[in-house]
């Protein structure tokens, strides 16, 4: 089947979102359509034939639009990239001022039914400790990011229409796939719920965490991790875990594993030429083997989803490459939970181009500006066309 580009299906996506958010309506339409097919069509064969001819005309017009758009998208200045943040970017107040957009209101109303609690209230009022919990944080960042995308759609619709690629950091990858039309919003949110609950349980089972490290070219991260594992063994910990979990930017890493291993690295940071270390406010060692118990629940729920090929390019955290097909998405979304996030590699894949070629406009949609900061370090020229679209109304002050 021919691939549609985002500008062509923008209006269609709006209609589909409204249709998908109305389960009763969708079932009713399906039932009615099924009945018509069984009965040979309620309006007779002539009616069906007429509709088929009209559909053919619409496809011909769409084909012309595709060719015209392909001509336009050759110019990088006339295209855009969407980046969706991950866990850790959340703050109390997310979503404030965005309920004036009907789509955002509808999303949060649907979220209450899928999650079983009032996510909007938690986003707006906290407390921060509850919002920071993995079980709440992942759905919250997912929702806030898509709300910010709708804000951009209302303020600068051409940015959405000209989007050619998207990427999301960890949980942000689910938002990127929904944005790209690969996943249904309600289904994706349910998968996020299952993922968050499973990862919370895995985190609670073992005292673990994540350590942000800024090093030097001579820093030996893997060697440091091996020595930290040996230290844990000396403490009686069987099968200790300490590995690089995030590749952020040159000499920027996040190391995750048992808490004792991370404490050892902080204490001996000079030995490994680490310039700066900081414990992250997360509940566990994400993207390591310690998240193994979360694999099966996520794999099972993903099997039930109707995942489609994205309308635009979406890049995977696992290898920094574009998703090729739906089975690819199924497999790598599961693998991502226990694999390092290769964000630096993703940035190179998205923005690599010949000398003198212009860069597209980049939008980070969602809470926080971490991805913009990383982009600035990875590719200064690409960052000059960067804009942050926050998950609150612009004329309202952000919470500190």
From TrEMBL:
Q: EC annotation?
A: 2.3.1.39
Describe the reaction catalysed, as an equation.
holo-[ACP] + malonyl-CoA = malonyl-[ACP] + CoA
Per its UniProt record, what SUPFAM superfamilies does this chain match? FabD/lysophospholipase-like, Probable ACP-binding domain of malonyl-CoA ACP transacylase
- Metabolic or biological pathway: Lipid metabolism; fatty acid biosynthesis
Which GO terms of type biological process are on file? fatty acid biosynthetic process
Q: Name one GO cellular component term.
A: mitochondrion
- Domain (Malonyl-CoA:ACP transacylase (MAT)) spans 83-389
Q: Which domain of life is it from?
A: Eukaryota
KW Mitochondrion (keyword) present: yes
Protein name as it appears in the record: Malonyl-CoA-acyl carrier protein transacylase, mitochondrial
Q: Which organism is it from?
A: Microcaecilia unicolor
Gene label: MCAT
């Amino acid at each position: 089947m021919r691939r549609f580009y985002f500008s062509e299906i923008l209006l269609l996506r709006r209609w589909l979102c409204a249709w998908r958010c109305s389960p009763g309506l969708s079932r009713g339409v399906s039932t009615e359509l099924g009945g018509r097919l069984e009965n040979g069509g309620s309006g007779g064969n002539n009616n069906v034939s007429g509709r088929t001819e009209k559909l053919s005309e619409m496809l011909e017009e769409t084909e012309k639009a595709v060719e015209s758009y392909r001509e336009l998208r050759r110019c990088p200045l006339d295209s855009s990239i969407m980046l969706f943040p991950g866990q850790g970017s959340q703050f109390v107040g997310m979503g404030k001022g965005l309920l004036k957009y009907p789509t955002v209101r509808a999303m949060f109303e649907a979220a209450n039914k899928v999650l079983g609690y009032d996510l909007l209230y938690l986003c707006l009022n906290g407390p921060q400790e509850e919002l920071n919990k993995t079980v709440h944080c992942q759905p919250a960042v997912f929702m806030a990011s898509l709300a910010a995308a709708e804000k951009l759609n209302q303020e600068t619709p051409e940015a959405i229409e000209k989007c050619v690629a998207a990427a999301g950091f960890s949980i942000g990858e689910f938002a990127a796939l929904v944005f790209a039309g690969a996943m249904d919003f309600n289904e994706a949110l349910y998968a996020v719920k299952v993922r968050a609950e499973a990862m919370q349980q895995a985190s609670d089972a073992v005292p673990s965490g994540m350590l942000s490290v800024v090093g030097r070219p001579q820093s030996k991260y893997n060697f440091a991790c091996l020595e930290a594992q040996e230290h844990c063994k000396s403490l009686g910990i069987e099968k200790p875990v300490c590995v690089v979990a995030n590749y952020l930017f040159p000499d920027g890493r996040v190391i995750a594993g048992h808490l004792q291993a991370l404490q050892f690295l902080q204490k001996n940071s000079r030995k490994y030429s680490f310039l700066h270390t900081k414990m992250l406010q997360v509940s566990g060692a994400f993207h390591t083997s310690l998240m193994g118990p979360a694999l099966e629940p996520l794999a099972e729920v993903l099997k039930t989803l109707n995942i489609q090929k994205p309308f635009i390019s979406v890049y995977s955290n696992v290898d920094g490459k574009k998703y090729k097909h739906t089975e690819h998405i199924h497999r790598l979304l599961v693998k991502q939970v226990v694999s390092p996030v290769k964000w630096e590699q993703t940035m190179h894949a998205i923005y690599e181009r010949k000398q003198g070629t212009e860069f597209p406009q980049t939008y980070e949609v969602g809470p926080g500006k971490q991805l913009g900061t990383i982009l600035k370090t990875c590719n200064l020229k690409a960052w000059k066309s960067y804009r942050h679209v926050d998950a609150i109304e612009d004329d309202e002050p952000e919470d500190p």
